[in-house]
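pls design
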């Protein structure tokens, strides 16, 4: 029976998942695709991916605030050492001297009218950053999937070996039964029976050692996927068709396109950065003086206007930034080419290995067929007392090794195909 335990937590208002337990009863087989699906419900990295969307959602919302009016409250009290005064006497008119202490309370309102696309560029850059961060999480998940596959094939190898050990133990049980009958009839020596029983115990010993190793692999798989594999569950060899494509689609390769998109967006943002910015503003206040600088009374005041700012010279800072981004794009292209070469070499190596394993399996089948005939003949001779148990066990162990090697080579072949799928970034759906 396989149990999938799923636990989810809350990562913000956009992600509310409940804790649940999924139990798949009556399932006695374990597949690689089943483990990977269990991983989607269990592995915390999938929840990190959802939380990342929430983070960048908040960041983009903060950037959109640039389009909204900005309101600031200001309070100011100053004292100055001198003030503007009129020292020209005018008959009949007294011009007061302003006080040296000033007080102001103002509310400033500003509204962006046009910023040359700077805010939009910032939103696009944040979106590209979000894609890159999501890709990093996907790469981590993909690496863990490869780890799960490695553990799965470890269990599969043990199950295949134990299956052969138990089958061969059954054959020894038949020999023991035949020899016991021969001993009772006085046709076979008891020493032959003891040698067979000792070999039978060695097989059980090997099975127990394999099960102990399997237990460790099962615990590692549970930690990554949440899938509980029982002792009686059997891993199934994946039956995947050999892919006929050579284009790599791994998350690491997709990162090149995402990084290139980010650099192009950043390059475009440099143009909007140099554009003039137009905004409207208004100020309402109360203070001493108001707008009349010759008054020493507290008064309210208001003013409205428009403001245009344009950095017409930045000492070639933008030009250097553009050259830096261009160099980064060239470096990215070099890395892409190196990655392509490495991927192509790995695909070619896997295909050659697959073809070699297929040829070896055909030879294994012939070897097992020949050794099986030899063991059957030896069993008949042992039963009739023509040969000793050591001769029979020599043939028996040769057949056992050949069968285990053949089964493990089948596992190796399936593992090499799965490795090719991972190299190319393909989904594993059995």
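designed seq:
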């Amino acid at each position: 029976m396989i149990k999938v335990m799923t636990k989810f937590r809350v990562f913000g208002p956009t992600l509310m998942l409940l804790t649940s337990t999924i139990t798949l009863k009556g399932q006695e087989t374990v597949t690689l695709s089943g483990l990977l699906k269990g991983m989607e419900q269990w592995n915390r990295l999938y929840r990190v991916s959802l939380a990342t969307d929430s983070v960048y959602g908040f960041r983009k919302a903060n950037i959109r605030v640039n389009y909204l009016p900005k309101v600031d409250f200001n309070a100011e009290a100053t004292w100055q050492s001198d003030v503007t005064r009129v020292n020209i006497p005018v008959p009949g008119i007294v011009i007061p001297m302003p006080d040296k202490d000033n007080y102001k309370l103002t509310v400033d309102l500003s509204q962006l009218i046009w910023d040359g696309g700077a805010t939009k560029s910032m939103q696009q850059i944040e979106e590209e950053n979000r894609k890159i961060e999501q890709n990093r999480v996907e790469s981590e998940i993909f690496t863990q999937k490869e780890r799960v596959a490695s553990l799965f094939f470890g269990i599969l190898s043990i199950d295949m070996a134990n299956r052969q050990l138990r089958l061969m133990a059954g054959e020894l049980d038949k020999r023991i039964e035949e020899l016991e009958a021969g001993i009772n009839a006085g046709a076979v020596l008891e020493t032959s029976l003891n040698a067979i029983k000792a070999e039978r115990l060695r097989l059980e010993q090997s099975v127990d050692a394999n099960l102990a190793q399997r237990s460790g692999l099962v615990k590692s798989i549970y930690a990554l996927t949440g899938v509980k594999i029982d002792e009686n569950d059997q891993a199934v060899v994946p039956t995947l068709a050999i892919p006929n494509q050579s284009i790599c689609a791994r998350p690491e390769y997709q990162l090149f396109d995402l990084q290139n998109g980010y650099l192009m967006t950043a390059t475009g943002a440099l143009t909007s950065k140099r554009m003039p910015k137009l905004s409207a503003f208004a100020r309402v206040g109360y203070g001493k003086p108001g707008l009349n600088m010759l008054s020493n009374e507290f008064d309210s005041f208001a003013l409205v206007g428009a403001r245009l700012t344009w950095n017409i010279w930045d000492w070639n800072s933008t030009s250097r930034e553009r050259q830096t981004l261009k160099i980064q794009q060239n470096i990215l292209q070099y890395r892409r080419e190196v990655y392509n070469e490495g991927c192509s070499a790995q695909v070619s190596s896997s295909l050659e290995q697959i073809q070699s394993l297929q040829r070896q399996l055909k030879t294994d089948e012939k070897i097992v067929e020949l050794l099986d005939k030899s063991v059957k003949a030896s069993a008949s001779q042992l039963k009739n007392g023509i040969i000793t148990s050591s001769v029979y066990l020599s043939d028996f162990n040769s057949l056992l090794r050949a069968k285990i090697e053949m089964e493990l080579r089948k596992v190796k072949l399936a593992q090499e195909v799965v490795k090719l799928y991972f190299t190319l970034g393909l989904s594993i759906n059995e």
